[in-house]
Amino acid sequence: MFKFGKKSVDSGLVYGNFGNMSFVSSDRSFIFITKSGTFMDELNDKSVVSVYADESNKSQFSSQVYSEENLASSELPVHRLIYKKTDFNCVFHVHSPYSVAVSIIEYEKGNQFITPVDSEGKMFFDKIPIVSGPPGSLKLAENVSEALTTYSGVIAEGHGTFVAAENFSKAYVISSLIEHSAKVLYLYNLYKTAQNFKL
Ligand SMILES: [Zn+2]
């Protein structure tokens, strides 16, 4: 987990202290998630808190559990619903810039997907869904988790990617592939526009 946090910063998927990641216990009762405001390239044992996967018994939470909940990433509701609706073990969320930019442009045009033009993107994704919802909201949690029941990754419009996978290695690779496809799509459209532009 720590290794892929550092890789995500080194490769430009994450800037500042944006982004978060989690995994679920084998019995799926606990989620281990990065704390709010954590720098993904400085992760250590103190960067992660454990929370109940199921919050339906929230009224019975002890003060200890509540304090852990309050420290967790503000995207905890999204992570919770993904683990509830899918069998995946890890969730990886980054604010990768080309994915964010392309999602805004395509969403403004009324598109709910981006269609990769690069070879890897075509091979791994037929299309990549774009969903909406304010950060940390239940609406975002519902839209992201629903998309991840069908697709391996999703872009929250103007915000970043959410990927769920069996392990962090796979989640990191899928996140990188989405960003690569978004970058190539952006450059492709930019180049095409420039070629049509006559001085
Ligand atoms: Zn975010």
Please sum up the structure shown.
It is built from seven helices and eight strands. It is α+β, with helices and mostly antiparallel strands. Strands 3-2-1-4-8-7-6-5 form an eight-stranded mixed β-sheet, sandwiched between helices.
Identify the notable features of this structure and list them briefly:
43% helix; 199 residues; 7 helices; L-fuculose-1-phosphate Aldolase
Give a verbal description of the structure.
The chain has helices at residues 2-10, 63-71, 76-85, 97-108, 119-124, 138-148, 168-196; strands at residues 20-24, 30-34, 48-52, 90-94, 113-114, 128-131, 153-156, 160-165. The chain is an alpha+beta fold. It has one domain: L-fuculose-1-phosphate Aldolase. The radius of gyration is 17 Å and the shape is elongated. Bound molecules: zinc ion.
